[in-house]
């Protein structure tokens, strides 16, 4: 995994990020847990067949969630390229409504800011789920065999 993060995918120019892995893993998890890939409707819950992952992007005018359509069926390099392209266009205010309305699951990652280790994300209606990712922490974890490990 570290090699992919450092060099990009298969020697290509797309550098894979931790967030790209999170988007892909979330999409695959939604296939295994369809309740997480559902919409709350007025009188019923609709399970979605496709996993269209919205990725939270901060822009000068506020938060927007461009969509990686069919993320479950795409490779990491494709997801990475799409996230980068959509995020750049979102920051320029150049997304079309169909590119940020209608996702089935949202990933909100503040881990890159380091000091944010956890937060509460707001679910985007009618979605039933959002994944809030904070930064990694070094902690002592009890281990019965070896005492404590980092």
* Gyration radius from CA atoms, angstroms: 17 Å
* Largest sheet report: 4 strands, mixed
Q: What is the CATH class name? A: Alpha Beta
Structural class: alpha/beta
Distance between the first and last residues' Cα: 20 Å
Which blocks of ≥5 consecutive residues have pLDDT under 50?
none
The strand order across the widest sheet is: 6-3-7-8
Total separate domains = 1
- Count of β-strands: 10
Look up the CATH topology.
Chloramphenicol Acetyltransferase
Number of helices: 3
Strand content: 15-25%
Fraction of residues in helices? 10-25%
Strand-and-helix sequence, N→C? HHEEEEEEHEEEE
CATH homologous superfamily classification: Chloramphenicol acetyltransferase-like domain
Please tell me the CATH architecture by its name.
Answer: 2-Layer Sandwich
Whole-number average pLDDT? 89
**What general form does the structure show?**
globular
Pfam family, one: 2-oxoacid_dh
Protein name: 2-oxoacid dehydrogenase acyltransferase catalytic domain-containing protein
GO molecular function: dihydrolipoyllysine-residue acetyltransferase activity
GO cellular component, one term: pyruvate dehydrogenase complex
């Amino acid at each position: 995994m570290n090699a992919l993060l450092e060099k990009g995918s298969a020697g290509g120019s797309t550098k894979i990020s931790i967030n790209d892995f999170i988007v892909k893993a979330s999409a695959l998890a939604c296939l295994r847990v369809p309740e997480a890939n559902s919409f709350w409707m007025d009188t019923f819950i609709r399970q979605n067949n496709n996993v269209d992952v919205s990725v939270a992007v901060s822009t000068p005018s506020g938060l927007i969630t461009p969509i990686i359509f069919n993320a479950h069926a795409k490779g990491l390099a494709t997801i990475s390229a799409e996230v980068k392209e959509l995020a750049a266009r979102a920051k320029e205010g150049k997304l079309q409504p169909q590119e940020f309305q209608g996702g089935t699951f949202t990933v909100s990652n503040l881990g890159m800011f380091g000091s944010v280790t956890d937060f509460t994300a707001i679910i985007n209606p009618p979605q039933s789920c959002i994944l809030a990712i904070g930064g990694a922490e070094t902690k002592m974890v009890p281990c019965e065999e070896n005492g404590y490990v980092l």
